[in-house]
């Protein structure tokens, strides 16, 4: 005898589990859309989640989405339902109080039914459109500006309409969708009712930006006017503003304008790219809705063409075709600075100076010290942005002093550096290079380890620095 109640309890439990799972899926969709700043889409997902399985989390997120969309009066109601403090959001609301001479008339604020009496109605601050309707009366409309915390009173005088026609609205493919008459929701297709004679605007409105643009309909006295409207994905309003004003704008990869662009792309996901020579390009992903216009303001950051670099570190030095008193396998250190100017995003011309490079060797037989100062010009090729890889060729002139004399020499060689962009204008890197120079014969003869020879003989020298660097754009 107890089998049937047990089966019923099990069925109800399974149904609630399915509803809770579906509600969780919708909640996750709402969170993902919120992170993308698509609060209109997130609001729909959170409301579906709450319909399937009511939770305080869904209600709190609904309040947040309404606040982000500027629908502060609705956000206030949700916070009050949660029992949360409403003081912070209350300052973004005021009240309208409508007194009508047609008892039972419906009061719409911004197209949303808010009541049928003359009690104050909480609304968001700003410009509000109020419409009062009752069957058999001509609708009353008024626009008011509502300040924070204040009440705006409206006297709505509805005139009796004796001249009526009949309107019937159907969706072209038989779909069931909301009907809006003169901007106000009146029912779902197929819909029909008595309306005042004259011109009216009829449109369809559904979920996921499906609907139709307003269609003008003329209703005649005592006649039935049937209008068939095809619904589809509605266009959205998008405005892209750029700084600088001559930047190029691309929508979904297609060029659309130079500077500010206004258009009506389809609702849904789109990508905006803004670029200008010698500015960092920017990419913006959008989720557009027909329910509200979108404005995207893109400010490009200039690319700095002038830069300075400071580098320093250890170096090894070798010389060939010189006597033992010259440095043959010395080690030491150097410090240098360079300034550059970008010709393109990747290629730059530079000047550099190394005020001091010191190399030294000491053992039981002899001491040798090489000091050099050198400078010149270089050209660089830089690849990648976040982890820049730089190739450079340097050439210039060096002044060197060795244990027994001084010399001048041309100097040239390559360098490669690998770095990390710590900020938009700063790069830290590490590099390795090789600089070759020529040591001329001095003509002086001296005694070296009991024998005679040229104090500095002709030969090729090379230094192999490994350095740390700091790059700064100016």
**End-to-end C-alpha gap:** 88 Å
Please indicate the percent range of residues in DSSP E strands (runs of 2 or more). over 45%
Quickly name the level 1 CATH class of the largest domain. Answer: Mainly Beta
Strand segment count: 34
Q: In CATH terms, what is the architecture of the largest domain?
A: Beta Barrel
Instruction: Determine the number of helices (DSSP H or I, runs of at least 4 residues).
Output: 5
Largest β sheet strand count, sense and barrel closure: 9 strands, antiparallel
Describe this structure in a few short sentences:
It is built from five helices and 34 strands. It is α+β, with helices and mostly antiparallel strands. It folds into five domains: 14-89, Serine Threonine Protein Phosphatase 5, Tetratricopeptide repeat (Alpha Horseshoe), CATH 1.25.40.10; 93-156, Sandwich (Immunoglobulin-like), CATH 2.60.40.1120; 164-233, Immunoglobulin-like; 238-299, Carboxypeptidase-like, regulatory domain (Immunoglobulin-like); 306-473, Beta Barrel (Porin), CATH 2.40.160.
Task: For the structure shown, list the relevant keywords.
Serine Threonine Protein Phosphatase 5, Tetratricopeptide repeat; alpha+beta; nine-stranded antiparallel sheet; 5 domains; Immunoglobulin-like; 474 residues; single chain; 53% strand
């Amino acid at each position: 005898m107890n089998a049937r109640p047990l089966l019923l309890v099990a069925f109800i439990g399974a149904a609630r589990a399915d509803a809770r799972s579906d509600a969780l899926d919708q909640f996750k969709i709402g969170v993902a859309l919120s992170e993308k700043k698509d609060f209109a889409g997130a609001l729909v997902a959170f409301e579906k989640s709450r319909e399937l399985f009511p939770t305080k989390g869904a209600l709190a997120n609904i309040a947040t989405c309404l606040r982000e969309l500027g629908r502060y009066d609705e956000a206030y109601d949700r916070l009050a339902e949660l029992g949360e403090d409403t003081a912070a959001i209350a300052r973004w609301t005021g009240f309208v109080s409508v007194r009508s001479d047609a008892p039972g008339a419906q009061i719409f604020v911004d197209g949303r039914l808010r009541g049928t009496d003359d009690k104050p109605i909480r609304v968001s601050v700003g410009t509000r459109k109020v419409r009062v309707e009752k069957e058999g009366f001509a609708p009353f409309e008024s626009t008011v500006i509502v300040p924070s915390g204040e009440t705006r009173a409206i006297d709505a005088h509805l005139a009796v309409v004796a001249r009526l026609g009949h309107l019937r609205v159907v969706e072209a493919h038989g779909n069931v969708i909301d009907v809006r008459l003169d901007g106000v929701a009146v029912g779902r297709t197929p819909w029909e009712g008595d309306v005042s004679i004259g011109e009216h605007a009829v449109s369809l409105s559904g979920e996921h930006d499906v609907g139709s643009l307003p269609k003008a309909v003329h209703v005649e006295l005592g006649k039935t006017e049937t209008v068939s409207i095809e619904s589809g994905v509605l266009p959205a309003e998008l405005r892209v503003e750029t700084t600088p004003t001559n930047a190029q704008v691309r929508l979904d990869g297609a060029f659309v304008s130079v500077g500010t662009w206004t258009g009506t792309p389809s609702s849904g996901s789109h990508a905006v790219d803004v670029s200008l020579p010698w500015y960092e390009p920017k990419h913006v992903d959008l989720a557009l809705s027909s329910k509200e216009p979108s404005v995207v303001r893109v400010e490009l950051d200039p690319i700095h063409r002038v830069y300075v670099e400071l580098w320093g570190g250890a170096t090894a030095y070798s010389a060939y075709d010189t006597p033992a008193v010259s440095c043959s396998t010395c080690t030491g250190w150097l410090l240098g600075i360079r300034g550059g100017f970008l010709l393109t995003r990747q290629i730059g011309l530079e000047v550099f100076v190394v005020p001091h490079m010191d190399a030294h060797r000491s053992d039981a037989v002899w001491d040798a010290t090489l000091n050099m100062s050198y400078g010149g010009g270089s050209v660089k090729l830089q690849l990648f942005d976040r982890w820049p890889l730089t190739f450079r060729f340097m050439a210039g002139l060096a002044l060197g002093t060795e244990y027994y004399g001084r010399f001048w020499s041309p100097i040239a060689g390559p360098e490669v550096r690998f770095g990390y962009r710590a900020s938009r204008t700063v790069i830290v890197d590490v590099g390795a290079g090789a600089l070759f120079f020529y040591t001329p014969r001095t003509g002086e003869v001296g005694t070296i380890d009991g024998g005679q020879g040229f104090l500095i003989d002709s030969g090729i020298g090379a230094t192999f620095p490994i350095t740390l660097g700091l790059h700064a754009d100016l």
